[in-house]
Amino acid sequence: MSRHRIGFWYRFAAVLAKPPLVVLFKRDWRGTEHIPAEGGFITAVNHNSYLDPLSYAHYQYNTGRVPRFLAKAALFKGTFVGAVLRGTGQIPVYRESSDAAAAFRAAVAAINKGECVAFYPEGTLTRDPDMWPMEGKTGAARVALLTRAPVIPVAQWGANEAMPPYAKDKKLRLFPRKTLRVLAGPPVDLSAYYGKEPTAEVLRAATEDIMAAITALLAELRGEPAPEQPYSPRRARAAARREDRGDNLPQEDAK
């Protein structure tokens, strides 16, 4: 595949990151044939470790189509890290501000220029106790329906075993040597939503289709069935509030 869009900064980052990844981890990479050789597209990826952006970026870098991540705007302010993020064309996200929509405009512009934009539709590390993808946010679907670009679902597993997402000690667990597993699937068919007004219901339905495709790929990687419903932080918080109020207790105990 063509590498003409990689550029100096991405190659520089690869020189720094690839050697330790190659030495410290084994790899099980599948589905690279689904990464488009030409044109703009979206990848939608599950997120279960602070380490998995490196794992996924390594996988896709080797296809010749580098991803442009949406990243917190604060990261762009650092001297070295910020320079690398800016140089590699990553997209700042200004959360909870009037500039929040700028990330979507930048993502659309990048796709229209023939780039790949990578979304973590969950918006954060999964909170699912068994590390399955959560309900997704609608940003990837919104950009997909605006651009009609292919949405490639990507599942990954293994980085979470080396760096569990919510471990208290935040230490790498490198031994025994872990395998970074990444699997890309065919584009998610969102054609049923093309031409429709992007209402909350339409965006939610498209997002559910994207998350279902990611989850199915992760079930294949893990070799076990996925839960029937994705974990919902909103439902979990509501259940916790009910429990705190004693709503789940037998009536005589809740008095």
Automatic annotation (TrEMBL):
InterPro entries: Plipid/glycerol_acylTrfase. It comes from the Bacteria. Residues 240-255 have a biased composition (Basic and acidic residues). Keywords: Acyltransferase, Transferase. The keyword ATP-binding does not apply. CDD domains: LPLAT_AGPAT-like (cd07989). This is Lysophospholipid acyltransferase family protein. It comes from Streptomyces gamaensis.
